[in-house]
Amino acid sequence: MNGVAIIGLFKNGYEALDGQSIKTRIVAQEIQRSIGADKVHCIDTYGWKKHPHKLLFECIRAVWSYENVVFMTDEGGIKVFPWLLTIANLARKSRIHYVVIGGWLGRTLNGKRMRRFWLKKLDGVYVETRKMRTVLECNGLKNVVLLPNCKYLPILREDELPVYNREPYRLCTFSRVTQEKGIQDAVEAVGRTNKHFGRQVFTLDIYGQVDKNEREWFEKLRSVFPEGVRYCGSVPYNQSTEILKEYFAMLFPTKFRKEGMPGTIIDAYAAGLPIIASMWDGCDDMVDEQTCIGYSFGSFEGLLSCLEKVAVNPDLINSKRAACLQRAQMYTPEYVMKTLLGCLGYQT
User: Fold this and answer.
1) Most buried in the list 14, 47, 210, 272, measured by CB within 10 Å?
2) Which pLDDT score is estimated for 236?
3) Which residues span the domain enclosing 128?
4) Positive or negative: CA dihedral 321, 323, 327, 328
5) How far is residue 55's CA from residue 208's CA, in Å, rounded to a whole number?
């Protein structure tokens, strides 16, 4: 009965390039490191539609066999896992914990009385931001715990930080490549800023996996990239510091209001890379004027204004690099996961 079962999107056998599988693996690795790999059982939900009965059996057996069950799921899984695991646990042999990835959960509870009922039955619901915790508490949940996002990353030393004082200043995006992430805004803003100044003030490199449903949109966008903009493909998450340290700033022009705590911001901090960001809901948990230049959510004109200010005064960015490194220490798994391990009953 001892140990922990973890249910989530591990994508075993595949490279982890999306936030959900990256965080699932990190949570599992840190629990294994802390209590021993032999006490941790991982259940991969990837491709579950091909074998739904197998996944159902594994989940029920996990509740009957382990003292703690941790599950991490997307918006589809929230319809199933809370009630399935709670009913399987009627004898109360296990403690059931839900680690939420992203900031979407609150908006799925409106008018969902049964969903709220089953979430209240869990031993813990772990969310990334204070705003999300407040939303869930306003929905009657008393089992909500703050658990920020985290990543295993090498963090630069302050004496390794470059100072950029010559044009063109290298910018990047470092997220899934979708319209919702504001990639088109980034491309057009860099092109218009350079045109405004009559020279190449900025270049832009786009990193990330292109969403399979948006490949046609992105190919059309690529065909009209202005000078100095290029697509650089995907980067394994454990190599992000090495790549990002070469850049002047990161653009995060998201149009997804419920971002939660984006892992790409943690990547930037580890590399001492300040951010120019659209202010999503809950962003004040993660960015402020010490590390970021922000603009009104979804405002293309706001992004343009930020780039023009930085073009005139690049020290607006350079002055934030040391603070980014300091902030990175708050998002190491060793620091963050103490909270979850304590709730699982393990001393850290």
Assistant:
1) 272
2) 83
3) 4-150+332-343
4) positive
5) 30
